[in-house]
Amino acid sequence: MTLKQLEYVTVTAEKGSVTEAAKELFIAQPSLTAAIHELEEEFGITIFSRSNKGVSLTKDGEEFLGYARQVLEQTKLISERYKGKFHGKHRFCVSSQHYSFVVEAFVELLRKYGGNEYEFHMRETQTYSIIEDVSRLRSEIGVIYINPFNEQIMMKALRDNALSFHELFTAKPHVFIGKHSPLAVRETIRLKDLEPYPRLSYEQGNHNSFYFSEEILSTADSRKDIFVCDRATLFNLLVGLDGYTICSGIISEELNGTNIIARPLEADDYMKIGYILPSGIKPSAMTSAFIDILKNQLGR
Fold first, then answer.
1. Contact 167, 248 (CB under 8 A)
2. What CA–CA distance (Å, rounded) separates 237 from 244?
3. Measuring CA to CA, how many Å separate 115 from each of 36, 91, 256?
4. How many helices (H) and strands (E) does the chain have?
5. Bridge-based pairing state of the strands 260-266 and 141-146
């Protein structure tokens, strides 16, 4: 096994095609195929399943890729530490629940450290996908929340995936509504006040357990429920249907406009919002910079 072979596997997994991976790596396709086959022979596993549509990771391949990415990340850290400043294409990926402050931090990181060449990924995605992304090192860091309702389940999921949770701040529950909503005149809102209006929530895919819900108080009764996949749709429906969603209350007018406002919700609950990292792996310089930006933005 060589570092070059590990790089070949990661690029092939990202591209989903041996042909495209060979172009990215500037090697001949037969050479790439042979190198991957040698790895499969060495460890007695099948890393990729092949079809006329390309390649996809097997279950063993997904596990192998996680280890490969850890080795390559640690190799990069050693190189940066002992060879000086990194010269090359900066790469960074964060997976997060739908928080505007994370997007703002991502933008600031890109402006400061992107350089002339970069490949950055900002994944606003489902809660369990965030855990998987960080566990398998598809993302260097994830941002989620924990509260009394989901804490036992979430902490077990993090332990099972060798991840650690680091709190950024604690937020009391708020409601996002349109600025022209009938509820906008209230300084605070009660759960009872929300009953006539549609509740907006983010879909959680195959892991749709309410323990993985992005919204707290997800088990509260609601006569009208709408599930969406992205933030823009959710905000449009908040305005168009006088809907609401329960959240942290932090919103960026610069990114999301002035049509959405937040009101405190009278409820005995809270959200511990923080970031997750792989346990036992030192964060890269880029990840550490991102964490510092997050903390500075939040005044932590």
1. no
2. 9
3. 32, 11, 26
4. 10, 13
5. unpaired
The closest of 135, 128, 66, 119 to 97, measured between CA atoms, is: 128
- The hierarchical CATH code for the domain 173-269 is 3.40.190.10
Q: What is the DSSP letter of 193?
A: G
How many other C-beta atoms are found inside a 10 Å radius of the C-beta of residue 232? 10
User: What pLDDT score does 300 carry?
Assistant: 62
Q: Please, which residues have CB within 8 angstroms of residue 293's CB and are 6 or more apart in sequence?
A: 105, 108, 109, 112
Return the amino acid letter for 114. Answer: G
- pLDDT at res. 42: 92
CATH 3.40.190.10 fits 88-170+273-298, yes or no: yes
Say what the pLDDT of residue 53 is. Answer: 78
Per-residue burial over 8-31, b if 16 or more Cβ lie within 10 Å, else e, is bbbbbbebeebebbbeebeeeeee
CATH number belonging to the domain at 3-67, selected among 1.10.3720.10, 1.10.10.10, 3.40.50.300, 3.40.50.10860: 1.10.10.10
Same fold, 88-170+273-298 and 173-269: yes
For residue 97 the two structure tokens come to 């629940």
Question: Given this model, what pLDDT does residue 250 score?
Answer: 86
d(CA 70, CA 67): 5
pTM over 0.85: no
Nearest to 163 by CA among 196, 141, 190: 141
Averaged over successive runs of 10 residues, the pLDDT of the chain (300 residues) comes to 89 88 89 91 91 85 83 75 64 92 94 83 94 87 95 94 94 93 94 94 83 89 91 91 91 76 93 92 85 87
Contact 106, 118 (CB under 8 A): no
Distance of CA 234 to the CA centre of its chain: 18
- Look up residue 282 and give its DSSP letter: P
Tell me, what's the pLDDT at 160?
92
